[in-house]
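tool_log.txt
---
The assistant was asked to compare two proteins side by side. It first ran the structure predictor on the initial sequence, then on the second. Raw inputs and outputs are pasted verbatim so the downstream comparison step can read them without reformatting.
(1)
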Amino acid sequence: MADVLLNLLMPDDVAQHVEDLLLSRPDLIIGFTASPAEGHGSAVSLVEAAELVSGHAPRTRIQTVGSEEAMREALALIKKELPRANVFFWLMPVIEAGRL
């Protein structure tokens, strides 16, 4: 099965929980990158005063590459353990990956 890129976008207060889940399953996720992001648009709830002023909400993006089967299993784990976590995801095919 080909590798895919799993992108996860979530509120900052959820990120540590998702990271802990991913780290608990090294059989599925051998590593990932987490970085800050800003959520914009009608699907993003702005609740804090600073968010209302700036027009965006702080988010964390986690990216990892692996087999489609492993990435789908990771998604199922997040859904099971954090059912109301408000994590947006997308999968993308990977043409090539490696280390230089």
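(2)
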Amino acid sequence: MELFKIIKKPVITEKTQALELNGVYTMQVNKLCTKVDIRKAFETLYGVTVKSVNITKTREKFRNTRKWVALKKRSTTKALIALKDWQRVADLMKLSIKD
């Protein structure tokens, strides 16, 4: 799988920004990739060493209307990526690809 198809985008909320102070980054990832794929892609794209990767999957959420049930939110997969030795990624939008 290509690197840019594994890691889609960072998840930016108050909770994830508090985790970033401890060296844990939250990214939205592809549903089919494994922890090893995420680790390799993150290390290659940002040039840091990854300590651990945890994956969470969210379910679809629905909303009832008068006539039918509408889809409110699609299911996603998020990865919590912890870095070793208090390393930091200065800017998640800026990439440094190592070959």
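---
observation on (2): The first strand starts at residue 7 and ends at 10. The helical segments are 3-6, 14-20, 35-46.
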